[in-house]
Design goal:
Elements (H helix, E strand, L loop, with lengths): L1 H18 L5 E3 L11 H4 L3 E2 L7 E4 L10 E4 L3 E2 L10 H19 L4 E2 L7 E12 L3 H9 L13 E2 L2 E2 L4 E10 L5 E11 L11 H21 L11
Parallel strand pairs: 4-6, 4-7, 5-7
Antiparallel strand pairs: 1-11, 2-3, 3-11, 7-10, 8-9, 10-11
Helix pairs in contact: 3-5
Length: 235
């Protein structure tokens, strides 16, 4: 009996150790169309390459080096089946969190302004999906993977993500604040993995996605400006 307990403890320790190395969030497919981007704008999107947004557009004529200031609009929520059941309090928390992450990332390279002018980018972001995880279920399915059988074969994947993890969707549009010319657009979707960090916070996976996207925005803009030592975000 004692040996069995020791073996179980060792197995649990190894599982916990391995899970700590899992990625925070992973890109998901099947993006949801909400209307944030107009049909004409969405038609300009093409499939992203490795480590890029699922869909994206980059204006080939944009002079990214000429922009050193930014207007960051308030993050909005576009309702769809994945956000309509989220409480107003949670949606406010999520928009505030997303805005603060993006603001902090852009502030490292741009000066924030409130009025359009030469060299000013207008950055607009929209939350298009926000689905919380089930913290209790996260614990069970992370420590004992076999219990995923309880969800049933069809329940293992919901909307392109494993069961019991949170998912987030975000769309972004960058325009010349003075002329309105579209500079770039992106549509992306991410979902949690089975790591145990933040397992008591149902919005942990969504928050991690916002942290990733904020770092990704800064990285992509750095690349477009031809910057050096651009920091690629960790997935």
């Amino acid at each position: 009996m004692q040996n069995t307990v020791r073996s179980s403890t060792l197995i649990l320790f190894l599982v916990l150790f391995l899970l700590q190395g899992c990625a925070a969030t992973q890109q998901r497919r099947n993006v949801v169309e909400t209307g944030f981007l107009a049909a004409s704008e969405r038609s300009m999107l093409t499939e992203g390459e490795s480590n890029e947004a699922l869909l994206r557009y980059i204006n080939p004529d944009a002079d990214w080096r000429s922009y050193d200031k930014v207007i960051l609009d308030s993050v909005t929520v576009w309702k769809n089946p994945e956000t309509q059941d989220v409480s107003r309090e949670d949606l406010q928390m999520l928009t505030d969190f997303a805005y603060s992450q993006i603001h902090d990332a852009l502030s490292l390279d741009y000066t924030f302004v409130t009025k359009p002018g030469p060299g000013v980018i207008r950055a607009t972001f929209a939350i298009t999906e926000a689905e919380a995880s089930n913290p209790a279920a996260d614990v069970v399915t992370s420590i004992i993977p076999q219990t995923r059988i309880l969800t049933g074969a069809k329940g293992l994947v919901v909307g392109g993500k494993p069961g019991f993890v949170g998912t987030a969707g975000l769309e972004a549009k960058f325009t010349d604040a003075q002329t309105g010319k579209i500079l770039a657009m992106a549509v992306d979707r991410r979902g949690g993995t089975k790591d145990l960090s933040g397992m008591t916070n149902e919005w942990n996976d969504v928050e991690k996605a916002y942290i990733y996207w904020a770092a990704a925005v800064r990285y992509r803009l750095c690349i477009l400006r031809g910057g050096e030592n651009c920091v690629e975000p960790e997935a």
